[in-house]
Amino acid sequence: MRAITELDTRQFGNLAEVVYAHLQASIFNGTLQAGQPIRQEDIAFQLGISRVPVREALKWLESQGMAVFRPRCGYTVADLDVDDVRDIFDIRLMLEERGGYVAAEQRTDEDIAEVKATLLEMDDLSTPTQDNINRFSDANRRFHKRLFAASKRKHLCDTLDLFRDQVERLVRIDALTPGRLVEAQEEHHDIFLAFKDGDPWRLSKLCAAHCEHTRDRLIASLQQRQPSGTPKKAGAMAKAHSALKRLARKEGR
User: Fold this and answer.
1) Are 192 and 50 in contact (CB under 8 A)?
2) For the chain, give me the number of helices (H) and strands (E)?
3) What digits encode the pLDDT tens for the residues 186-215?
4) What region, left, alpha or beta, does residue 155 occupy, with left being phi > 0 and alpha being psi -120 to 50 degrees?
5) Angle, alpha carbons 144-149-151 (nearest 5°)
6) N or C: which end of the chain has fewer CB within 10 A?
7) Which candidate, 194, 141, 190, places its Cα nearest to that of 169?
């Protein structure tokens, strides 16, 4: 983890936001593994800053369900088990189905052009090298984020970002499986065509199916890696349910 530069602060804003971006990236790319301690003093030393913005960034990570704080132990990277993944994706499925429907109704020519540009970028990254997977995963996040942004539903999009962040590291591990990127791109092209055509029903069903396929692959992968009876790690889903309740209150106003 490199020291923070002036360019970082201009790009992200205050120091806490820069630290958050660094830690989030480290979790996504596997540098920080599930259950691994995140020591404030180490992060502050590596980035060449005080502990204050690190502490603020860690609280933000905790609120997003990516870190867990335990008294006398400090922060660790949040772990996810099969039940967590199933729960997160069941909620994502409902939100993405609705988000896709509204996005198809509301999309503009500018939305279509920007989503298409990201789709073509991913086409060039379908060879599963580690560098390509990281770049593909970044573009994949932008593809879905931009697609749902066309719905103009801010609270729905913010909540989708929260759920997507919690499973991002698992999605990147899954992308290493041979043929996975090509399979995902086929689904992305179908999603884009429905989006471009402005077909709400088709897009909503394709978004839901894409979410289901990702969920089923991740669950199968976790079941192979985790022994039965593994204790459930609390924390991540509590944050997720809290965010969903906040969304429901905001949408109900």
Assistant:
1) no
2) 11, 3
3) 999 999 999 999 999 999 999 999 999 999
4) alpha
5) 115
6) C
7) 141
Amino acid occupying residue 16? A
pLDDT in tens, 128-140: 677 788 889 899 9
Task: Classify residue 10 by burial, with Cβ atoms within 10 Å: 0-12, 13-18, 19+.
Answer: exposed
Task: Look at phi and psi of residue 83 and say left if phi exceeds 0, alpha if psi is from -120 to 50, else beta.
Answer: alpha
Q: What is the DSSP string of 172-208?
A: HHHTTSTTHHHHHHHHHHHHHHHHHHT-HHHHHHHHH
Six-digit token string for 199: 């077909």
Contact status, residue 201 vs residue 60, Cβ threshold 8 Å: no
Residues facing residue 38 across a β-bridge? 75
